Amino acid sequence: MRKTPLLVVFLTVFIDLLGFGIVIPFLPMYAQDLGATGLTAGLVLSTFSFMQFLFAPMWGRLSDKVGRRPVLLGTLAGNALSYLLFAFAQDLPTVFAARALAGFFGANIPVAQAYVADVTTPENRARGMGLLGMAFGLGFVFGPAVGGLLFEVAPWAPGATAATLSAIAFSLALFRLPESLTPELRSAATARRAHPILFLATALRTPAVGGILLLFFFLIAGFVHLEFAMPFLLRDRFGFDTKQVGLVFVFIGVCMAFAQGFLFRRVAKRYGEPRLLLMGPVAIAIGMQLYWLLPAWPMLLPAIAVVAVGMGVSNPSVPSLISKRTPPHMQGQTLGLSQSLGALARALGPFLAGWLYDAYQVHPPGGTPWSFAPFVAGAGLILVGVALGWRSLEPAPAGPPLEQR
Q: What is the DSSP letter of 312?
């Protein structure tokens, strides 16, 4: 395994996600201060994910054609500009434009995943994807904490800091990141011209990867229900304040970082990614029910750890398995499709979870109404994904390979 490029990609993704996490915690409040309604604030959040849905496959395919390094450099530079625009936004149209640009340039995760696939052997693929997963987890742990402190300094401070961090990531990649894709593989990828999102139907019909893509979509859609509803459950049922909710998310992030950075590569070597993509989602679905069934909040901590570890081993299993079943000259495009579906799930999931939380509530005597519906629905979506992906998790799914479709 070429360790230096992997370390650079790890630090690049970590700094990039740290910048993203800095902005997210205060974004709805900032939008409302500029005159946004609750619905408009939600659309500000969803804009980022919808842009990733459209353009993650595009960046992935472009990296197949021209190489990983130039695409990573270009998107990191664009990220810095988008955060700088956001830092000095004085009206809602500018905020929307900044978040749309952030989603456009931030759809570069499949390029980082494809880079890891280029520089690792199939035997070491799980380790490389686990390191990227740990970068995600650590970025989401430290980003919101830093963002909350910066927002107290000035409304522009989080955006300016995120822009600075993206510029640092750009400099790091510029001087320390070599190209990973050979000229021969780049030449093999130049024939495809249609927008790569149109390749989604072909990929979904391919037994080797189609079920995995569907499983990932429903896994993220179900997990978003948990992410959305958990702060409300902690507040309404257990009386948590904002700071305590933030600490719970830090605990989740630490557990996921541990699972993705240290646990995943060990259990993947022993059990294999297909089995982890069965065990992990089932553990998440069961743990989600413990959230609302357990009567006291200290008992929630083991359930939270179960869900976080389940997600920590499931999430990197998807790109690891897809990369092993995809021809080398199509790695970026196919990994981009998985990230595109994940972004679509993140864009749509909060709307359904919010409606469920309001529509189906428990009214305890003398207490605050709360709801378990998003946890049940989220677990149901995850299990649907497992059922749809079952056949693709076989060691050798029957049918033509992806490049022949």
A: H
CA 55 → CA 4, 43, 198, 199, 233, distances in Å? 28, 18, 12, 13, 34
Question: 338: which 2 tokens?
Answer: 């998985």
Instruction: Report the alpha-carbon distance of residue 116 to residue 260 in Å, rounded.
Output: 15
For residue 354, the one-letter residue type is G
Q: Name the domain count of the chain.
A: 1
Domain of 274 in residue numbering reads as 3-180+191-404
The H-assigned helical ranges of 263-330 are 264-271, 273-293, 300-324
pLDDT digits (tens, 9 = 90+) for 202-235: 888 888 889 999 999 999 999 988 888 888 888 8
Rounded Cα–Cα distance for residues 171 and 241 (Å): 39
On whether residue 172 sits in a domain, the answer given is yes
CB atoms within 10 A of CB 176: 14
Neighbours of 315 (CB within 10 A): 27
Alpha-carbon distance of 247 to 200, in angstroms, equals 38
Predicted model pTM: 0.82
